[in-house]
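Changelog note: in this version the structure field was regenerated for every chain. One regenerated record is shown below for reference.
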Amino acid sequence: MPLALLALAIGAFGIGTTEFVTSGLLPEVAADFGVSIPTAGYLVTGYALGVVVGAPVLAIVGSRVPRKRMLMALMALFIAGNAISAAAPVFGVMLAGRIVASLAHGAFFGIGAIVAAGLVPPQKKAGAIAMMFTGLTVANVVGVPLGTLVGQNAGWRVTFFAIAGLGVLAVLGIAALVPEQERPERTRIGGELAAFRNPQVLLAMAMTVLGFGGVFTMSTYITPMMTEVTGYAPASVTWLLVLFGLGLVGGNLVGGRYADRALMPMLCTALAGLAIVLALLPLAAHDKIAAAVAVPLVGAFGFATVPPLQKRVLDQTADAPTLASAVNIGAFNLGNAMAAWLGGLVISAGFGYTAPNGVGALMAAAALVLALVSAALERRGGPAAGLPEAPGVPEAAGSRVVAAGAPASAADTGAYARRP
């Protein structure tokens, strides 16, 4: 694997760290600015909404700029946002910094994946993309707990200045290691937008919002829940975040492995498991051992939905995946924003720090219902499953031949894997 992938992974590590570390530092930030913890939770909501807006807009802009330059520009935006947050004199300025940093998130991963795949031979493209995204998963195991520990002991501003430093390192790495690339061909916006007429694409994105949003109802308020309800010392939150990160890594590996084999069964199993664990967490939170078991399970079931959901969108938009893929990254963060907001509402209403988990359980259950609806529509075939089939195309035994531009179903995905 070329060293250029290391530069992309560093950028992904920094983005993953800044996205999740705020949850571990909410009490410190709230106390410093004199706001409530639910109000501080808007830092999570604001970042997520910034990704929702920035992902499609900057993905389209980036399609007309040489990819190396676009990646460097995105990391410059990331550095500026984290520096603003670190130096913010008031809460509103910190929130603005979080939004600025978030704008780079979706486009960096979308364009970075294309660059990573272009750096290696065709038979190694999946491994190259996985190498870049390793930075995101490692951030949850190393970057977030370490950033939380530093923030609790040296001040949360030090954490954000350090994250900005990671961005500088990523820019230098991209400049030195990523080869120059030609300007991409002009994007056909009409073709990209046509993908959103496919009902299966919209269902997949709705599942993304609700399913991964359920994870954030727990992770956003994990610090006050574990310290105020479970009785852990603030320093112990670092190790709980490590467990949560390990759950994310494990869920990603399992979800990625089985998404190609049985996408919809894998997705439904993960969503059902997530709903059950979140529903039980308000009880488990009163016991230290049970809580320590439940936290990584939420991460595992939650992130096990990511590979099948992202693959679902790509399968359904094979001819024009760029915008839909970026929007789906935004959909993950829209779910995060909804979760942080709804969790703050139930806490402010007096239901306690465990109440957001109940909201998350309902969100995951709703995503499961949509998954079952999507699978039922797919079994019926025809326009309900996406675009209509081309007339006169025969079906072979055990597999289906799909017309150009038609979406692939879960069964088709398995058929593709078996074809030479």
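Spot check on this record: DSSP finds 19 helices and no strands in the chain. Residues 125-154 form the longest helix (30 residues).
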